[in-house]
Amino acid sequence: MKTTLRAALITVLILALAAMGGPALAVSDEISPVTLMVYTPYGEDSPAVATLTEYASLVKDASDDLITLDIHHSGELGSGAAALSSAQSGIIDIICLDTFDLISVYGRARMVNLPFLFDSAQQACQTLNGGIGDELFAGLPDAGLVFLAEADGCMRQLAADCSVKSARDLEGLRVSVPDYGVCRDLWSTLAAVPVTDVAPADVPAAIAGDSLDGLDGSPSQWVANDSYDGVKCVSNINYMWMGTTIAINANTWNSLPLEAQDILREQAVSAAAVSLDAAAEQEAGAVETLQAKGIEFELEPDTGSLRELMGGDAYYDRYADSDWYDQELMAAILKEVR
Would you give the DSSP letter of residue 26? Predict the structure, then answer.
């Protein structure tokens, strides 16, 4: 009786959604064997691959070997932008890529990268892998994708040819930053001079030529890009979290039974926990490399002075009229993290 009633309810929902032009729900709860192609453009030793490897194992166990995740990485299927396009079209079933890359198709993802929103990667993952994350990415199906989880990509710091301990040390500091409005806005507000036209490989020459004073990013990025020559000090200001989004093609998602959907979503969140340890380990190795080069680390800068100079949480109000910004969602995030 219960099974019949459940089937009838599901049929009603499907017909209702079809009438509204919405996506159809999966009809059956029973899982048939399926293999899903999963891709991240990052290398074999990256936190993203470690996360996806764990994800595949968790999904395999939870589905009794019925769901197989076929993992590809290291640029095999193209750049982040190419991967995003392939995932939207269904060539790739599941992607794991920098949340930055989503902005081109889903502007609301910018909210993840707002400065000084999260105090740590742990806090960011905990906040976004729940109701707040579901709400933030609720519109992602319009771009052909469904949100599964946010994994860690570490925090952004500041490396410079001088020590930066507080806001007063930033005045006039010429900092190489991504050509990204949120980054430019912050450094300008902090009285630094954001520079967006210097490639990572050219940063050492720019510092040596006295046209640049430093760069933002993470130690692992600086080591990978060999962009740290001329840097004397790293200030751990943790000014922005770099998330890594795990998402699935919307058509693939809608074709799966409900039980399979539950497994993929729940195990993505579980796998995201691995990213925290993997990213921390990667950053620790990069820090050792930089310290071996004689670069000093300011581990406890006065970030309070930076937050004060930017105006505290009222800083985010500048984006109130932007089509990607949601005031109510921001209020919910701040209630969770403050």
Answer: P
Q: Which residues contact 233 (CB under 8 A, 6 or more apart)?
A: 159, 160, 161, 162, 163, 164, 295, 296, 297, 298
- List, in order, residues 6 or more apart from 118 with CB less than 8 Å away: 124, 127, 241, 337
Asked, for residue 169, whether it belongs to a domain, the answer is yes
- Burial tier of 34 (Cβ tally within 10 Å: 0-12, 13-18, 19+): middle
Query: How far is 331 from 154, CA to CA, in rounded Å?
Result: 24
Q: How far apart are CA 242 and CA 154, in angstroms?
A: 6
Question: Averaged over 138-153, what is the pLDDT?
Answer: 97
Count of structural domains, the chain: 2
Establish if 324 belongs to a structural domain: no
The phi and psi torsions of 115 (rounded to 5 degrees) equal -70, 145
Q: What share of the chain is helix, strand, coil (3-state, %, to 5)?
A: 50, 20, 30
Q: What pLDDT is recorded for position 29?
A: 66
Which band of pLDDT confidence, cut at 50, 70 and 90, is reported for residue 306?
A: very high
Task: Give a yes or no: residue 201 inside a domain.
Answer: yes
CATH number at residue 278: 3.40.190.170
